[in-house]
Design a protein that fits this description.
This protein has eleven helices and eight strands. The chain is an alpha/beta fold.
Length: 267
């Protein structure tokens, strides 16, 4: 299993894309970096070209991206603009492919959350339509989308794996699959069976400790249970540490060793 890290949570105010840690991740032995797509998509051409050169020099591709849509690109509610969404999606996925991205995570709760008082049934129809459009653009870009369920403290829509699977099945396009996220799974109190129900359709995974969304540093049985469920679901791809830290270099090194140990024992 490949181990990566979401750079955008390390210094979110100074570096929302997450590129500033790429050299350190390469030095520590991470397999890839995960970057914030909405922030990479907002760069001017010169700055984006510089980002590509930095990835190439570090020797790490952004094999996955999170933060697909900015809050301004509404996915539900009265402000949805399909023409604007398609333009943004096409350009963002074009840039993702240039960064070496294979999987883009579709969580984006600020864009996806249902506005207060807006009908849930209408919001569901909207997200099915938007996800269908995303599938079309993902086909063109040769990128796969992983639907992310997000815990109730951050979102009000698509909170559980079962709901991510419902969206996946209604859209029914090969480029639309699902994400397994340990932190959201743990906050929501889901069980390993909620992961295994997605067997064959998990294409990416995120990981963070339940306590303050911190970097996992010590082995826990709950971690083993999650990875065992991934194995039962047939998933052996990538897992990105998506965590906050106050001591990046030390904790990133220790966490990589832990993740290597856990995945080596189980897979």
């Amino acid at each position: 299993m490949k181990i990566g890290l979401c750079g955008c949570l390390i210094h979110p105010q100074e570096d929302p894309i997450g590129i500033e840690v790429v050299e350190e991740l390469a030095r520590l032995g991470y397999d890839y970096i995960e970057l914030s797509l909405r922030d990479a998509a907002a760069l001017d051409e010169g700055s984006f070209s510089a980002l590509l050169r930095r990835l190439e020099k570090a020797g790490l591709a952004a094999e996955a991206c999170n933060n697909f849509f900015p809050a301004s690109q509404r996915v539900t509610g009265p402000a949805v603009n399909m023409e604007s969404l398609r333009r943004y999606t096409a350009e963002a996925l074009r840039r993702a492919k240039l960064m070496g991205t294979e999987f883009v995570v579709f969580g984006s709760s600020p864009a996806r959350n249902i506005p207060e008082g807006f009908p849930v049934e209408t919001a569901w129809r909207q997200i099915v339509e938007v996800t269908g459009m995303i599938a079309e653009e993902a086909d063109k870009a040769d990128v796969t989308i992983a639907i992310e369920y997000i815990n109730r403290n951050e979102a009000n829509f698509i909170l559980f794996m079962s709901e991510a699977l419902k969206l996946f099945r209604e859209v029914n396009r090969p480029r639309i699959q699902v994400l397994a996220d340990y932190y959201h799974y743990a906050v929501q109190g889901e069980a390993p069976r909620d992961i295994t129900q997605a067997a064959g359709h998990i294409v990416h995974a995120h990981f963070a400790d339940l306590e303050k969304r911190g970097i996992p540093l010590e082995p826990k049985q709950e971690y083993r249970d999650f990875f065992a469920a991934l194995k039962e679901a047939g998933y052996t791809g990538r897992v990105s540490i998506e965590s906050y830290t106050q001591d990046f270099s030390r904790e990133a090194e220790k966490s990589l060793a832990l993740m290597r140990k856990l995945t080596g024992e189980i897979f």
